Amino acid sequence: MKTILSLSLAVAALALATLSANATVYTDATNDSWGASEVDISSVIVTNDGNSVIFNMILAQGATNGIGSGANYLFGIQVVGAAQGQTNINATSAGATAGNPWGKRVGISSGMNYFIGCYPNGSGYSGGAQLYHFTNGFGWSGQIGTTASIIEVTNPPTPSIKFSIPLTALGLGVGSNFNFDVWTSYGSPGGQGAYDALDSSVRAPVAPYVPTNYDSATAAGSTLSSYTVLSGVPYSAQVTFQVDMGVAIQQGLFDPSFGDYVEARGSFDGWPVGDHLGLLMTNVVGTSNYVAVLVTNSIPLGSSVDYKFVIDSGTLWEGNVGPNGAQNRTFILTNIIQTLPYTYWNNVTNADLSFAVQFTVDMSVESAYGTFDPGSGDTIYVNGDWDWNGDALLLTPTADPLIYTGTVALAYSPGTTINYKYAKNQGINGSDWETNGVGPNGANNRQFVLNTATNLPPDFFNNVSTFGDVAVGTITGGEVFNWTAGPGIRLQSSTNLLSGWTDVPNTQGQGAYTNMFNGGMKFFRLVGP
């Protein structure tokens, strides 16, 4: 199924007084749809500047499927005062009787003048929003070319899609008023109705795949929303951040008496690194709570903002503290003045709640290649969300001197995804760290979900557990083997795969060997220390 976004607009001008706010948030009940999370509308934010009207459709918080996962998003807007728009609702997409140019069984029977369609993943649509206009007796026609506006897509944990349309293309100006509704549906099979609608907080009585028409003008419980085009005067938003540092103080991670400070940093300030570059939090006297107010005119209302709390100059960041294990906290800027709820540092509410986690890493391959030599003083550490300084926990050798282990008490809420990596020699040099991509599915960091005390399976540094392949070339009367050399790597041979392996003379530390045929079958392998 293809993902389609459609915005239906029935437009006519009503001159009204300019409002003082320049964005309006329209909310919808969640879990009221006929489908999965990708068709469950949470809210729609409408705003405008001096040139365009901006729409931002947001799915339910924590939706596992995002924009582009098979759903259609349909906005219907009606501005009274113009010639009456399309009153039909059907699955027809062409001609004077077509309900809308995308053939969806949704509409506003009191008239719909404009239709905007967007297919985020469709190369034929250039990832943009398309505008159509309805003319009585003729039908729908493209209004401003193939692409009306480039869309901005945000995926889980808070999926949203945002785009803008020129005011002049809709015949709107300051003081113009329009009503609207928002629907969700699917592109395949065609001709389906609404799976969810902004105008109603109850699920439609008939399944949209029956199929059945959805009319926002007459549906039970339906109330069309209304928006007034404003003057586009710049605004200043105030966002209050709040964090309880009590647990961090008990854990010894944060001590204001020694000059420790906490800041909020995020997408609103470019994730700065350095001393006193973030939004400094102030202690609420007599408590372990810290607050700060961000004043900005650079974040449009309706935007999704990522952030975290950090101690000192970035010495200690929070871990994966977002919804469903996401890396960052997030919020939607919905109001000129907005206060975020109190949260706990690292989402830990109880300092006594910790789990012992044992880490184990095999360094034998690194040793064989000569990049790790305990005899010369090389050491190995495990680092993670609890401490990324490079020397978080020194691991000690087991009975096998090249296998190292150590245990960390992690004070995180059950279900938290923990990131970690290994680093040699305190991670002083960038090359001492494991490379990015060692995590699941190529993630930069290794990960596990903390649910209880656990011994993690052994890891190989950089996930390298073998000495690689041996390339074989032929020569007259024999063959030549080539491999990546290392001071601890040598070639062995045997006439039996199960036993009898012996070192091939003069191959340790070398990268090639010539074997002359002398009858009988022989097997070869690379081994290390």
What is the element layout, followed by pairings?
Elements: E1 4-10, E2 23-27, E3 41-48, E4 52-59, E5 71-78, E6 106-107, E7 114-118, E8 128-135, E9 139-142, E10 149-150, E11 152-154, E12 160-166, E13 177-186, E14 196-197, E15 214-215, E16 225-228, E17 237-244, H1 246-250, E18 262-266, E19 279-280, E20 282-283, E21 289-296, E22 304-311, E23 316-317, E24 329-332, E25 337-339, E26 343-344, E27 355-362, H2 364-368, E28 380-384, E29 393-394, E30 396-397, E31 403-410, E32 416-424, E33 446-450, E34 454-455, E35 459-460, E36 471-475, E37 478-482, E38 490-494, E39 502-503, E40 512-516, E41 523-527
Parallel strand pairs: 1-5, 6-15, 17-25, 17-26, 27-34, 27-35
Antiparallel strand pairs: 1-7, 2-3, 3-4, 4-12, 5-13, 7-8, 8-9, 8-10, 11-12, 13-14, 13-16, 17-21, 18-19, 18-22, 20-21, 22-23, 22-24, 27-31, 28-29, 28-32, 30-31, 32-33, 36-37, 37-40, 38-39, 38-41
Q: What would your notes on this structure say?
A:
The structure is a single chain. The protein is 2% helix and 38% strand. The chain is mostly beta strands and 529 residues long. The strands form 9 sheets. Strands 1, 5, 7, 8, 9, 10, 13, 14 and 16 form a 9-stranded mixed beta sheet that branches. A hairpin with a 2-residue loop joins β36 and β37. It is globular and about 95 Å long. The relative contact order is 0.10.
